[in-house]
Amino acid sequence: MNNEDIRNLLERIKDNRVSVDEALNLIKHMPYEDLTFAKIDHHRQIRNGIAEVVYAEGKREEEVIEISRRIYEKHQRLLVTRANRRIFDNLDIQAARYHSHSRTIEAGSPQEKTGNVVVVTAGTSDIPVAEEVIVTLSFLGSKTEMLYDVGVAGLHRLLGNIKVFEKANVVVVVAGMEGALPSVIGGITDKPLIAVPTSIGYGTNLGGLTPLFAMLNSCAPGISVVNIDNGFGAGVAAHKINKPI
Prior knowledge:
245 residues, alpha/beta, Rossmann fold, 10 helices, 11 strands, globular
């Protein structure tokens, strides 16, 4: 759909030849922006409520920068994950902010925060993935509360903070090593729980496979599991539970 098509559609709405609902359905399927190396889906938010987010890892830095600039120009909002400092320094978006711990870039006016998502880590080494969860949630408009370093090696640290779950709409638990913490929390709270396995751990952690398998095989019912180190995916899922779109 080009500018002339949009103009014609607006004229048809004005003349009551097309209803607002029919027009919205047409807009939902408007084409992407073709950069040859990338096809930017500017209308993703219309279809599923979450605008396109740039995953930087594996792309050339100049590709990430070009995609990011085009998204920001269209929407005045931007989220980039797995980004390095060089990308941020060369992005040249004045409103952009770089979160070094989570390797994320965000730009745009802050969203009003609603609800409450509690983000928990088993250990301090799991915090970078948890920070990706938090940046994602904040960018989308969910309020967050953090509870760090309460893994099963010292279970009293978790039990001493158990009241924090009473205020949560959803809980995200980030854990590496053997990945036992989601099962423990799943057994003491009635809140929806999303488990995030991390690649933190010694050899038999197997780059996150061991906690992934542990979480998938948890005997605590109702736990949802995302991919290894996928803080962004957990953040989106938690936001949709916390603030239905």
